[in-house]
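Sanity check. The docking grid for nicotinamide-adenine-dinucleotide depends on where the pocket ends up, so I'm generating a full predicted complex first rather than guessing from homology. Inputs follow.
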Amino acid sequence: MEYRQLGATELQVSTIGFGAAPLGDVYGKVDVAETTAAVHEAIDSGITLFDVSPYYGLTLAESRLGEALVGYRDKVVLATKCGRYGASEFDFSAASVTKSCEDSLQRLKTDRLDILQAHDVEFGDADQVVNETIPALRRLQEQGKVRVIGITGLSLKNLAAIARRAHVDCMITYCRYNLMISDMDDVLLPVAEERGIGVINASPLHMGVLTEDGVPEWHPSSLEIRAVGRQVVELCKARGVSAPLVALRYCLDHSYVSSTLVGMASRELVRANLKALEFSIDPELLVEIQRLVAPVHNQIWDSGLAENRG
Ligand code: NAD
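Predicted complex below; grid placement will be based on this.
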């Protein structure tokens, strides 16, 4: 496993991070014994970063991860979120994020979170996030309940604008840097590099677009994006490699990103994704993929309040 420092923080994280959203049955019902075994195998293989949220499975993912981490807590960098509690339920008030932190500590069976981030901040009022949410997260840090704090979201412009107005340690964005899209580099990287903010890149498989099984029902992408994703999967298959392997490796090659979060709920997927560490992409295949993706490259769906999109 390789490890990188998370921006200017003291945290070192594995370059492959364990995305625990699937533990909340977000991509279909999981076998809990199997997900627990997957968590343990990931840790034994050197994966340290585990990312979850109260939103995933409406607390189910946190509870399952908390159970799985009993006896393993000190081996991981544990990241969760606050402020998003349902598909349309958001509360970025100081009271809500403070209570959410306490609830997460209980579900995760620990007395300290390594990373706490305001979740999908484009759904909140930017002034509130800057003036109320982030200061509340800093107070939790001062109290020793959290080591580093940050913000997450799909809207790059909104994340960048908040990061210019308030001091955050790290940010997660998703579906903004992978084989289908690369606008994270133009919009988010400048502010991250300038301020030493750690960047965690989520959804290297574009939340299922780049997998054989395809996307879940709730996936917000256009039919065109899905069709191109399917072509990429078929092309990789014809070249004798799996699209997820190529897609994850592509993200791992980013020079600034500290960790790439991939959703995993079985030992089989943990093993498959670990193979990316020793894999390199055939440059000719990459050119072919980029040619296929060109018509939809950098296309993204809307998320959040109208004034925060982009
Ligand atoms: P992803 O791109 O990682 O895709 C996950 C899907 O791909 C799942 O269905 C999984 O079973 C499948 N998969 C994983 N590895 C595979 C392989 N080798 N072969 C075939 N299929 C494979 O999307 P994601 O899970 O949504 O994102 C990763 C993690 O990032 C999440 O679990 C979550 O922790 C985090 N995340 C955070 C935010 C946010 O903060 N706003 C948003 C999205 C994701």
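Relevant for the grid: Residues 126-142 form the longest helix (17 residues).
Also worth noting: The first strand starts at residue 3 and ends at 5.
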